[in-house]
Each structure stands twice: as C-alpha cells, then as structure tokens.
Write a structure and sequence with these properties.
With 484 residues, this protein is α/β, with parallel strands linked by helices. It has 14 helices and 20 strands.
C-alpha cells in the first residue's frame, strides 16, 4: 500500500556509486523494504556545472521533504573551490552523530582481529571542525576547539541509546581531558553524568592516546566507543581498516530532524563500470537506514542474508581469497546471491537482530544548563610582539597597570615567561598577558577592560584578541598558563 512507503532521497553518486546503489536497492526491495524513492543528482557533474557545493537547490527540497538521505559515494573534482558535500550536508541538516559499526567476519574475510565488533559513535558538529581559524601573527595560527554541554549530551545520550537498542554491554568514552581540562573535561564529565542514567552498561573512560593504541591492538576489548569529532574522525577509519575491510563498512549520520546513510569508502573511479565493486559498504549503510525508518525486520532480513552470502564464500574481488572464498563474483551476481538467501541466517557468524529505533529518547537533551553566577575577574590580552625578550615585554606591559587592573602573568604558547620565567623557554611572536583586579580575587568591569585596551592601542601595541576571564559560581572558567 502506497501509504506504507517511507519517502527517502537517493543519490547514485559517481564512479562505482551507480552500480553499488542499484545492487543495494535491489536487495533491500527484494527483502520487502517499503520505500518511496526520490532521486537527486549530486557530485562530479553538479560540481562541474559550476555549483561549488556539489548539490542543486532542488535536491535540498527533496532532502527537507524526506529527511532521509541514502547516498552513494561521489568524486570531488581535483582543484580548488569545491566544497565537501559531506561537510555541507552534515552541517545543513544538523547531523550530530556519526555511527560506524566495524565488524570482522573471520574466518570468511581475512583479518588480524577475528573477534572485533566495535561501534564508533563520533560527535559530528563541534570540536575543531567548526572551521573557526585565524592567522593571528606572522608566526602563529589558531583553530578554535569548541565543545558544548548540549552537544556533548546529545552525542553521549545517543551512544547509550544505541547501545541499549542493540543489546550492547559496554560504552567507552575517549577524551584527552588530562590536557584539555575544560573542553575534553566537559565531554568526560557529561559521559559520567549521563552514564549514571544507564546502570545496565559497563562504562569506562580512556585517555585517547592509549585508548587508540588499545583499540588498534585489542579491538575485541571494546564495544560502543563515543568520542569528540577529531578523535572520532581518525579512529573510525582506523577501526574500519583493522576490521579487515574498508570496503565493507557503512555509516549513519544522524540529526534531530534528518539522517544520511552511506558507505565509508569513496567512488573508486578505477573500478567503475566494470561490475567489479563490492556493494557491501553501501548495503550496510542501507541496513542502518532501514532500522532508522522503522523497518528493523527488513534490516535483519537483509543483514542475515548478507552474512550467509559471506559465509558461503561468494565474494567480490576485493575480499576474494584463494582457499577461503568459493566463488569470485561481480556486483550484480553478489546482489543476486544475497537476494537468493533472503530468509536465511548465517550458520556460524553471529546473526543480526535489530530493535525498533526510539527517536523520542535519542534526541533528548537535558534542559538549558542552570545559569551560574558568572563574574568577570580579568582579561587575557593576546599580542603580536616581535622581540623575543619576555622580561622587556613584561615590564613594558606593567607600565599599563592602573585603574584597578594589573598585569599578573605573561605567557608564550601557554608557558609562563614573566615574571619568573626561564631563559630556555622558546618564545614566538604570540603572547598572552593576563590582567586581573589589583585587589586579590576582586571583580573587574568591561569598562576597565575597554580602558586598558584604549591605553594599549594609544601606545601602538598590537593586541590581536582578548579573552575575558570569568568565574562561574566561584570556580575559575579559565586555565592558568603552565608554570603559573
Ligand atoms: P576509495 O575509497 O574510492 O578507494 C580506495 C581503494 O579501495 C581503491 O583501491 C578502490 O578500488 C577500493 N575500493 C573502494 N571501494 C570499493 C568497493 N566498494 N569495492 C571494491 N573496491 C573498493 O578512495 P580514493 O581512491 O581515495 O577516492 C576516490 C574518490 O572518492 C575521490 O574523488 C574522493 O574524493 C572520493 N571519496 C568520496 C567519499 C564519499 O562520497 N563519501 C568518501 C571518500 C572518498
């Protein structure tokens, strides 16, 4: 019945995209997926028509209507000026969660990690990916790392809800909060807070460096792993690669109002049009989509038939191995082999089982954070100063003390160099000068800061930015320089 059909937007992409999309849709439809497909064009042809985002305005209309995007890989033309379609889609549709299951299929597909079954849940909107970058001095460039409480709550809650729906046992958080005490510290804290609402799971936190080493060495020790954007970007590729098969993994990008599903690999132009490509990565994206649109029973049917096909040794060239595989097949034949096994389950590999998605839980964000008593207590003024003599610069800055405000420390790349610095510390042309109240722990006003900046400007000092220093309910909202 037409009313049963769920509208989705499909893009066939470039390179091997059209072949693997046709194969994936064929399998899903034969399995009984109830889809009303709207097709859009994205990628190379659109870029080359002069549309820098690689997607036409009419395609956005379809995406806004269906809110579900099943996307084949595209080719981004070489040369400047073309914007990443993935980043644009993610930002425009607010897709905050990237979910990537990385599973090994030993002994049917070669891998060093036969018992790996890890899901990486990556925060997708914040961290260093806001693209807020500045060149501040001749020598120093800056990229702002932003981590928010609502952003962290959304992704961490999503990870726990995912774990619950998929009968997972453990949720691990990776962060670097020993160094980035505020940003990664918040992510870790929110993980502990939200984790307390999910008593049924084992929970653990790893510092990302040793966590990454452990993940690469012993992935079977992990289950669901949630992390901020940059670590997730890197480690989701590591995890997919060590599962033995970048060509097999799919991923979901989930937002409050929309979602996008795809393979993790690219358009493999050299393999295009030869009926060679493995459609499994995109099919796995499709399986995640079927769960998302409320057809978990179809997702299960497709996934189990696929597992059985892999077990039966029917493999595309990229995973074919003499002695393990039984038959080397092309894209179409592989799809037919999966279709022929619909209704069957794997005999040795773990069968797939999916529960219904629960959107009412997964997007829940705790109400607006309680507003703290926020008190302005000082200002960090950043300068370009080309001499490398901290004592001279520190003394010069002290001459601007007055009007209730004074220099308390001067640092360079986060290390205190005045007063009481070390001669050995290397200094760039980028300096941070902390000015606080002349009264111990006293408040300062915006007006005092403006007047300080006015004095500095009149003296011709090149201040490149300021950061106000606040306390929140008496707690410092800034990190002192090393050595302070
Ligand atoms: P790629 O993933 O396309 O290919 C890497 C290697 O894996 C190649 O040897 C390729 O033949 C093989 N491969 C990939 N998918 C396969 C499959 N399904 N079956 C069999 N073999 C497969 O990466 P690349 O060569 O670095 O990039 C090619 C193009 O894809 C570039 O234009 C890049 O911008 C684009 N790309 C797109 C996406 C996307 O749309 N999501 C992601 C990554 C790369």
């Amino acid at each position: 019945m037409a009313s049963n059909l769920v509208p989705i937007t499909v893009a066939h992409g470039d390179g091997i995209g059209p072949e693997i999309m046709a194969a994936s849709l064929h399998i899903m439809q034969e399995a009984g997926a109830r889809l009303a497909i709207e097709t859009i064009e994205i990628g190379e042809k659109v870029y080359l028509r002069g549309i820098n985002a690689g997607i036409e305005p009419s395609a956005w209309e379809s995406l806004r209507r269906t809110k579900v995007f099943f996307k084949a890989p595209i080719t981004t033309p070489q040369g400047g000026g073309f914007k990443s379609l993935n980043v644009t889609t993610r930002k425009t549709l607010g897709l905050y969660a990237n979910v990537r299951p990385c599973v090994s299929y030993a002994p049917y597909i070669e891998t060093k990690h036969p018992n790996m079954d890890v899901v990486i849940v990556r925060e997708n909107e914040e961290d260093l990916y806001a693209g807020i970058e500045h060149r501040q001095t001749d020598e120093v460039y800056q990229c702002l790392k932003l981590i928010s409480r609502p952003g962290s709550e959304k992704i961490i809650r999503y990870a726990f809800e995912y774990a619950r729906r998929n009968n997972r046992k453990k949720v691990t958080c990776f962060s670097k909060d020993n160094i980035m005490k505020f940003t990664d510290g918040l992510f870790h804290k929110v993980f502990d807070e939200i984790g307390a609402e999910y008593p049924e799971f084992e929970k653990e936190h790893w510092i990302v460096d040793i966590g990454a080493a452990k993940l690469a060495d012993t992935p079977e020790a992990f289950d669901v792993v949630v992390m901020p954007n940059l670590y997730g970007d890197i480690l989701s590729d590591v995890a997919a690669q060590i599962a033995g098969s970048v060509g097999l993994a799919g991923s979901a990008n989930i937002g409050t109002g929309a979602a996008m599903f795809e393979a993790i690999h690219g358009s493999a132009p050299r393999r295009a049009g030869q009926n060679l490509a493995n459609p499994s990565g995109l099919l796995h994206g499709g399986i995640l989509m079927l769960v998302h649109i409320g057809q978990p029973e179809i997702a299960e049917r497709v996934h189990n038939a696929w597992l059985r096909t892999i077990e039966d040794g029917i493999h595309t060239y990229d995973i074919y191995k003499e002695g393990v595989s039984k038959q080397k097949v092309g894209t179409k034949e592989f799809a037919e082999a999966v279709v022929a096994r619909l209704g069957q389950k794997p005999e040795h590999l773990k069968a797939a089982s999916y529960a219904k998605d629960t959107p009412e839980h997964k997007h829940h964000v705790n109400g607006t954070a309680k507003r703290a008593n926020k008190q302005l207590v000082g200002v960090d003024v950043f300068f370009q100063w080309n001499e490398r003599n901290p004592v001279e610069f520190g003394k010069k800055l002290e001459s601007f003390n007055g009007d209730g405000i004074k220099l308390t420390s001067l640092s360079n790349r986060g290390v205190k160099v005045y007063p009481g610095g070390f001669e050995e510390t290397f200094c760039t042309d980028h300096w941070r000068a902390g000015f606080m109240s002349q009264q111990e722990n006293g408040p300062v006003t915006h007006e005092q800061i403006v007047k300080l900046l006015d004095r500095l400007a009149k003296a011709g000092l090149d201040f490149i930015k300021i950061e106000n220093l606040y306390t929140f309910d008496g707690q410092k909202g800034y990190v002192a320089s090393q050595g302070e």
